[in-house]
Amino acid sequence: MKLKLLTDGVMRAGRLVLFAGLALGGLSLNGNAMAQAALGETVTWSVQAPEAAKPGAKLALTLHGSVKDGWHVYSLKQRQDGPTPLLVSLNAGSAARAAGAVTESPPNKVRDAAFGFDTQFFDRPFTLTVPVRLRADLKAGPQAVAVDVRFQTCSGGTCQPPKTVHLSATVNIAAGA
User: Fold this and answer.
1) Whole-model pTM?
2) Containing structural domain, residue 32
3) Tens digit of pLDDT for each residue in 150-166?
């Protein structure tokens, strides 16, 4: 289940009126996979984790990004003098720590007129895989793995400032583990 936030610009009497919804929000989902969707103007995000695990276990979080038509989000790898790359980090108080490099779906690689060199981006649904290790001291029951995603989106010659969304996936820690 995904939620989408639409920001529409409407011209009325020579003025631009913006209708904005929640800048950040979420919906917890229960089922075979634990997920939460976060909303943004140009990208809809969700994160999934295995439903259950033992303390200290290594597992992978899967982040899904869906880009609004006409927009693109820059990928993990960019030149230093280029656009803001995707950055995925785990919160300090999270139930897990990073356990390797984040990987991504194959991005598009195109010469970007705004920068004058090739950039890598996604303009359709994509996936990021985040390897994590659960803390060994976790107690039995549901535990939150909090993830931040910083990204920048552009459409033609218009770019939004970089923004960060906060996601969380729940992992059930097995009793007596």
Assistant:
1) 0.74
2) 23-173
3) 999 988 778 889 999 99
